[in-house]
Amino acid sequence: MNEDDINQLFESYNVELTERELKELTENNYEAQEKGEDDEVVPAPKELTKKTLNKCFTMAHDLTELLIREDPTMERSLKTRREVFAALVPYKEVEKNLRNEAKQSKITSYFSKN
Questions:
Q1: Sign of the alpha-carbon dihedral angle for 47, 92, 100, 62
Q2: What is the C-alpha to C-alpha distance for residues 83 and 88, in angstroms, rounded to an integer?
């Protein structure tokens, strides 16, 4: 691509559209919207799973254990461990909620005690 190509491209955008061309463009756009042919792709919402959360907790544990083992300053590694696990508290709550949702009720809870 050279300078002439770029200038030609800019010139093509400076040309005014006729009423007919404008009408065709708007009709085509309207038809595409009616058919649902949007260019935008909506990504699927992400969900945290118990498996993913447990993997994160294991990785955090392994990381902090490595730091405690390898860092010559015990105070620094312990502080890091506390802060890492404090940062994971919201995820622990999510994991707890997922665990409670997945709990199966005992069959005896469906029977009356008469």
A1: positive
A2: 9
Other residues' Cβ atoms within 10 Å of the Cβ of residue 95: 19
- pLDDT digit string (tens) for 89-112? 999 999 999 988 877 677 777 777
Sign of CA dihedral 79, 84, 86, 92: negative
**Cβ-based burial of 84 (10 A; exposed 0-12, middle 13-18, buried ≥19):** middle
The burial class, CB within 10 Å (0-12 / 13-18 / 19+), for 11 is exposed
Cα–Cα dist 87/59, whole Å:
14
Report the C-alpha gap between 48 and 91 in whole angstroms: 9
User: Over the stretch 67-80, which tens digit does the pLDDT of each residue have?
Assistant: 999 999 999 999 99
Beta strands in the chain, from DSSP E residues, in sequence order: none
Give the domain ranges of the chain: 3-35, 50-110
